[in-house]
Amino acid sequence: MKILVTYFSQTGNTEKVARSIYEGCQGEDVDLKPIKEVDPSDLKNFDLVFLGSGIYASRVNKALSDLVAAAQELPLKFIFFSTHASKEAYQDGFKVVKKKIAESSQIIDEFDCCGDNIGVPEAMRKAMLERLPEDKRKEAEEHQQWLKGRPNEEDLQNAKNFAQSVIKKL
Fold first, then answer.
1. Which among 9, 49, 89, 141 has the fewest CB atoms less than 10 Å away?
2. CB-neighbour burial class of residue 47 (10 A; exposed 0-12, middle 13-18, buried 19+)
3. pLDDT of residue 88
4. Mapping DSSP to helix (H, G, I), strand (E, B) and coil, where does residue 6 land?
């Protein structure tokens, strides 16, 4: 099976997850590439594409939808993966991409994990916290502490295990 693991990563979190997914696909014919290095016309040459991004303002980066929209022919199977700063649930950031892919391909599964929002400047984080009511501020500060260092080794092992389990099912 020919597999592509491609991603957009603003802070490096999604790249870490992509590398773990790539490791989980060892034994297959697998390529790992940042999304900016993927030629849309090459997508049809893969049996399976792991497509990943951080979730930014409840969306994946536009580079994902641009890649999918520019492809004349898509592979039959996709798996999405993402990192986000939400402890519980996150909104479906792949909505736009899913619409295009669903026309001709199958979305097999999705993987997500938390990622430290290291790309947000400290001054901006403090300003956002200061605007919150006291009870919500404390909760948000605890959440930011919890996010530090994510994705951690356990998250990355989970990504690798996820890829291995998907490959076994196919």
1. 89
2. middle
3. 60
4. strand
